[in-house]
UniProtKB/TrEMBL annotation:
One of its GO terms (molecular function) is 1-phosphofructokinase activity. InterPro entries: 1-PFruKinase, PfkB_dom, Tagatose/fructose_Pkinase. One of its GO terms (biological process) is carbohydrate catabolic process. Residues 9-293 form the Carbohydrate kinase PfkB domain. This is Tagatose-6-phosphate kinase. Keywords: ATP-binding, Kinase, Lactose metabolism, Nucleotide-binding, Transferase. It comes from Paenibacillus solanacearum.
Length: 311
């Protein structure tokens, strides 16, 4: 039985290009490139599998790109059960200028999801959630999917007695929090957008996190970038700091963070250890040339360098 299921409604092929230099208007030849099944939930699934826990990836795929995604997942040993639709799964490009280290992403829109496929997916999700301890919803919604769709899916996951993680933004997040997922990982901007869209002091930000927690969301993690993260769990605030590293490719760090949190929760680790695993996984992802990818030795080493303070 898969302990964890990840949902990617807009699955992608992530193509990562390393360029000697990226200058608009000029021809550039990639010195190396990688192509991996991607989209946030697929990245979460890959890292969960690399952390040693059984996982199933689901969502929507389309066309020959969709075939590539599912074929590669099979080769990476990741169970998958997607709903296929017409059209073509998208490419998500990440161009890394090696002269500056600057990463520039270009994301295609992906296929339009028809109403009948939305219904088909709801049934599939209920079936998968019935076999899972945790279901992770990650990423933006493709065209044709109503902003409240995550909220409907979260309700189905909870009906099956499973735990729902939600990592998204904008209107889908605003609707999603009303379905009271167990865990959300908003950035500062997304927190403000959930309330009054006014930037605030750290104290006002914490008040907003506490309001989210009072609505029943058990775990809220707020990424502060270089400054680490703040997590509120069952009313207790934890301030965490990630070890300093030389980042190679930061794309997918948030997904690896979610994967570490899901594995930590599934293993019923104490909160501090769960947060440590999440941060070590997110940091380890930045050491990989590929998106949504960690080396277990890096995770183990970094776990000893993460600080978690109760406040
Ligand atoms: O978080 C990184 C990433 O998953 C990339 O690998 C790329 O697939 C992108 O995000 C997709 O984001 P979206 O929110 O559109 O699903």
């Amino acid at each position: 039985m898969s302990m964890i299921t990840t949902v990617t409604l807009n699955a992608a092929i992530d193509k990562t290009y390393y360029l000697p230099r990226l200058e608009l208007g000029k021809l550039t030849r990639a010195s190396r490139l990688y192509a991996d099944p991607g989209g946030k939930g697929v990245n979460v699934a890959r890292v969960i599998q690399q952390l040693g826990m059984p996982v199933t990836a689901t969502g929507f795929v389309a066309g020959s790109n969709g075939d590539y995604i599912t074929r590669q997942l099979g080769q990476q040993g990741i169970a998958h059960d997607f709903v296929s639709v017409e059209g073509e799964s998208r490419l998500c490009l990440n161009m890394i200028d090696e002269s500056t280290g600057v990463s520039t992403e270009l994301l295609e829109p992906g296929p339009v999801i028809p109403a009948e496929a939305l219904e088909r997916f709801k049934e599939k999700l209920s079936e998968l959630a019935g076999k899972s301890r945790i279901v992770c919803f990650s990423g933006s919604l493709p065209q044709g999917v109503p902003a409240a769709y995550y909220a409907e899916l979260i309700a189905r996951v909870k009906e099956q007695g499973a735990i729902a993680f939600l990592d998204t933004s904008g209107e889908p997040l605003q609707h999603g929090v009303r379905a009271v997922p167990y865990f959300i990982k908003p950035n500062e901007h997304e927190v403000h957008h959930l309330f009054d869209d006014r930037p605030a002091t750290e104290g006002e930000l914490l008040d907003k996190l506490r309001l989210l927690q009072q609505s029943g969301i058990k775990l809220v993690s707020l990424s502060l970038g270089e400054k680490g993260s703040l997590s509120l769990y069952d009313g207790q605030l934890y301030r965490t700091a990630a070890p300093k590293i030389e980042a190679v490719n930061t794309v997918g760090c948030g997904d690896a963070f979610v994967a570490g949190m899901a594995v930590g929760l599934a293993q019923q680790l104490p909160v501090e250890d769960m947060l440590t695993l999440a941060i070590a996984s997110g940091t380890a992802n930045a050491l990989s040339a590929r998106a949504g990818n960690v080396n277990l030795d890096d995770v183990r080493r970094l776990r000893g360098q993460v600080t978690v303070e109760r406040e």
